[in-house]
Design a protein that fits this description.
The complex is a heterodimer of chains A (about 190) and B (about 280). Chain A is α/β, with parallel strands linked by helices and about 190 residues long. Chain A contains nine helices and five strands; from the N terminus they run H-H-E-H-E-E-H-E-H-E-H-H-H-H. Helices cover about 45% and strands about 10% of the residues of chain A. Helix content of chain B is about 70%, strand content about 0%. Chain B is built from twelve helices and no strands. In chain B, helix 1 runs parallel beside helix 11 and helix 3 packs antiparallel against helix 4. Classes of the chains: A alpha/beta (about 190), B mainly alpha (about 280).
Chain lengths: ~190, ~280
Amino acid sequence: MLNEIEQNRKERQSAWEYVINYFRKRSIWLLHYCTGCGAVELPPVMTSRWDLERFGVGPMATPRQADVFLVTGYASIKTLKRMIRTYEQMPKPRWVIGFGACTINGGIYYKSYNVINKLDRYIPVDIFISGCMPRPEAILAALEELRNMIQRGEAKGYDRYVKNYDWYKKNQKEILEREGSLFGEADDENK
Amino acid sequence: MVGLLFIGLGRIITARVQRRIGPPFYQQFIDVIKLLARESIWHHWIMTLGSIMALGGLIATMVHVPVAGWLPYDSGGPIFLILYLATIGYLGMAMGVSASGNPNAPLGIGRALSLMLGYEIPFAAILILFISLTGSSSLTEIAAMQAGGFLSWNIVKFPLAFIAAEITVQAMMAEKPFDQMIAPSEIASGPLVELGGKFLGLGMIQMAVAIYFETAIMVNLFFGGGANIFTFTLKQFGVYTIAILINSVMPRYKIENAVRYLWTVPLALIIIQMLIVFLR
């Protein structure tokens, strides 16, 4: 059993990667994309009540410095463009956390004419946090899970983006060039 | 290494002031190792050259600062050479990050250099005081002059000069209220804005070396050097703790106010101290 696990690990990552992943998971720097309302849950997580810095997690100012791209809440078409640019500026390895119900299926903006529903179609999300909004405990649990995924070498969203680049670009293009027929879309579905 | 440890402990102290637990003390080492193992995006070979020049300049400075009376070779801790070499680090950083083309980077560098204009004048005044008293510009001799117990330390003899120097060193280390150059919420961490991966790792090592030699200068000037490396490091950590405590409760000056403050308050303090010393 143990040998099997060891074997699986070796298939995913070399010993060097395993050691580096230990350091990566202990030092996760977040880049907040705080256009959504979920951002309001982050200050309690950062400050004295839940103290995220215990795990080496901290906020960073620019995409070049950050490891994790935290999309808090809904992404409108306008912000999606910026999101893609920000994501592509980050150096590898980079991870994305989809924060709140809006990034999973649109949440309460499900039928909105200018909000995308599934974030995972446009940039590769490693882990989602469900809830509207998620509690700080949920954020901590998600970060814990992300840490384990990094250590196991499973959090490979950036590889997925490279491999399926055409698919992601096609989806992005579709949504960004859709602007002509935006109005009235929600009405059409109601009929 | 000690500098990185200092930053790690400083983060814990800040956390405790803010009623948090804080990261483990070796967090800074983890961060640097992670950054050095990361993909680095670079825009121009000048960026690499600038990073290495900054680190090299700081290490060249460190060679001349006596640590507990010990120097790699017998230069005697020439204070003017130290001040001269310390600027090379900043100039290297300026060159490197300006090549990145991000407008925030030159903005941060401009602030750093104008702040340097602010703190070097009071610091030079402090040095003039000590040089005229010792008759030598050697840090080793200034430290040796204070030998013989707590009461002969310069901090006891010249308290006003110490307060002035503390304010100056606060500006040198770019701690609040003088952290205009790296203001993360204002100019997106200034010079570091385009640095990722190895460049940021090198930047953190630079910061650690800078903190180490700035506290070492302070210990040599005011705390009588140190009998051995342990007491010396302990005194350095004391200096750094004062800086961190001020840092964790202060807001940020505007850059012009910071320079004006540095040119008035510490300079006035040091001039009063000079009058007391020379007219007595």
